[in-house]
UniProtKB/TrEMBL annotation:
<feature type="signal peptide">
    <location>
        <begin position="1"/>
        <end position="20"/>
    </location>
</feature>
<dbReference type="GO" id="GO:0005886">
    <property type="term" value="C:plasma membrane"/>
</dbReference>
<dbReference type="Pfam" id="PF13855">
    <property type="entry name" value="LRR_8"/>
</dbReference>
<keyword id="KW-0677">Repeat</keyword>
<dbReference type="InterPro" id="IPR050541">
    <property type="entry name" value="LRR_TM_domain-containing"/>
</dbReference>
<keyword id="KW-0433">Leucine-rich repeat</keyword>
<dbReference type="InterPro" id="IPR003591">
    <property type="entry name" value="Leu-rich_rpt_typical-subtyp"/>
</dbReference>
<protein>
    <submittedName>
        <fullName>Uncharacterized protein</fullName>
    </submittedName>
</protein>
<dbReference type="InterPro" id="IPR032675">
    <property type="entry name" value="LRR_dom_sf"/>
</dbReference>
<keyword id="KW-0732">Signal</keyword>
<dbReference type="InterPro" id="IPR001611">
    <property type="entry name" value="Leu-rich_rpt"/>
</dbReference>
């Protein structure tokens, strides 16, 4: 299918008159394309104009891009353009939008205002718009006034890379959003109920300064995805998620968490929980109990020293469990009794040296079991028992040999990775013979 760029109809207007309040567009270049025309190019020179409607044809849906300097969008500058589908005002030095600049745009789907110099969004700036996408990212916005968004419906509202330190109440009035993104602002405060008046499903808040998950702030009955990466959350409390009944994805990467207590995640609908790159040294035995929908749990790059065989109690399902690059030294008896089968269990990059003879006894089958880059120097004949593994990764440990017949030791393993171990000469020969009949990799 030919790109829309090949269907470009470009009309270029150059205006060389001084600026007045009536005429928003002075000394700018305007480009547009129709969806159904093929490589038809027109060019025309026009003095100046106060409303986009005056200079674009109205026969069929049109997408408009404006280049140049537009310090202010005055009232009705984008007004009653019934065929306007997309408007791109990226990097036009825009400093202010007057209320009423955007009105009566029934087909508008995309509005791009990123890369400008906006410092505030005033009351009644975005009123009665029903769009797919509004991009206000990479401005210098420090203030959102009450009812900045009123009778407003959008699938995506992007306010990333601005300078907001707080999100006050009343910004949204009769608003529906699918996705609100506030990445890389300076938010340390969100007013209680400021967001709860809006029904939306995805909230992105990475790169801010939030210190907690306050249930009065995160009272979002329809929210399914919450991203709080790279904030300053230090403490999780029982009940923090009680007002997020539909939440199935939570990411808290690169915060300041040191402990995970019981009562935070239990009996939630979480499907994907990411706690990577915190300072977690302690997880309560029951912290992940009764999480019947949990599929992916990641706790990589933390400070855990122990594997608790009581984790993940309750109803079980195949899961992806990753706790690599922690400080775990031992795999205890019945370590996996609550996860008898799993997509993957990743424990690479720890300090595991000791594996209990009964560590795997209640583990039935795993697609990918990764113990690479630990300190394992012994692998007993009966470690795996009847456990079935599609892939077993033992590379980068301290194994000099594996005792016993390798066909028996790894009888229920599909692929074995054995590279980067200090194999002695006798064991190397034994493994080479084993390689003839097995998918194994020896370094």
């Amino acid at each position: 299918m030919r790109s829309l760029l090949l269907n470009l109809l470009v009309c270029i207007f150059r205006f060389k008159v001084s600026h007045s309040e009536k005429n928003t567009f002075v000394n700018v270049t305007v480009q547009w394309y129709f969806y159904h025309e093929l490589e038809t190019i027109e060019q025309e020179t026009v003095a100046s104009f106060d409303n986009v409607k005056k200079i674009i044809p109205d026969e069929e849906p049109v997408s408009v891009t404006i280049h140049g300097s537009i310090p202010i969008l005055y009232e009705k500058s984008i007004f009653e353009v019934p065929n306007l589908v997309s408007l791109d005002l990226f990097n036009v030095s825009l400093e202010e939008i007057k209320p009423g600049a955007f009105e009566n745009l029934p087909l508008l789907e995309k509005l791009i205002l990123s890369g400008n110099k906006l410092t505030e969004i005033k009351t009644d700036t975005f009123v009665d718009l029903n769009v797919t996408y509004i991009d206000l990212s990479s401005n210098s916005i420090i203030l959102l006034q009450p009812r900045a968004f009123k009778n407003f419906n959008a699938s995506y509202l992007l306010l990333d890379n601005n300078k907001l330190t707080e999100f006050p109440s009343g910004v949204f009035d009769n608003v529906t959003l699918g996705n609100l993104s506030l990445t890389n602002n300076r938010l340390h405060t969100i007013a209680p109920k400021a967001l709860s008046t809006v029904r939306f499903r995805i909230l992105n808040l990475p790169g801010n300064k939030l210190e907690e998950i306050n249930p009065e702030v995160f009272d979002l009955q329809d929210l399914t995805t919450l991203n709080l990466d790279s904030n300053s959350v230090k403490l999780l409390r029982p009940g923090d998620l009680r007002n997020l009944p539909e939440l199935d994805e939570l990411s808290l990467v690169e915060n300041q968490l040191k402990e995970i207590p019981e009562g935070v995640f239990n009996n939630t609908k979480l499907n994907d929980l990411n706690l990577d790159a915190n300072k977690i040294a302690k997880i309560a035995s029951g912290a992940f109990d009764d999480m019947k929908d949990l599929v992916s749990l990641r706790i990589d790059f933390n400070n855990l020293t122990q594997w608790d065989n009581n984790w993940l109690g309750g109803e079980s399902r195949d899961r992806f469990i990753s706790i690599h690059f922690n400080q775990i030294t031992e795999i205890p008896d019945d370590a996996f009794k609550n996860i008898p089968s799993a997509f993957a269990i990743h424990l690479q990059g720890n300090k595991i040296r000791k594996i209990s003879p009964k560590a795997f006894h209640q583990l039935e089958d795993v697609i990918d079991f990764d113990l690479a880059n630990n300190e394992i120097d012994r692998w007993d004949l009966d470690f795996l028992g009847n456990t079935s593994l599609d892939i077993l990764n033992l590379r980068g440990n301290k194994l000099e040999c594996v005792e016993g017949d390798l066909q028996t030791v790894f009888r229920n393993v599909g692929i074995i990775k054995l590279m980067d171990n200090p194999w002695n000469e006798e064991c190397t020969k034994k493994i080479e013979e084993f390689l003839e009949n097995k998918n194994a990799f020896l370094g």
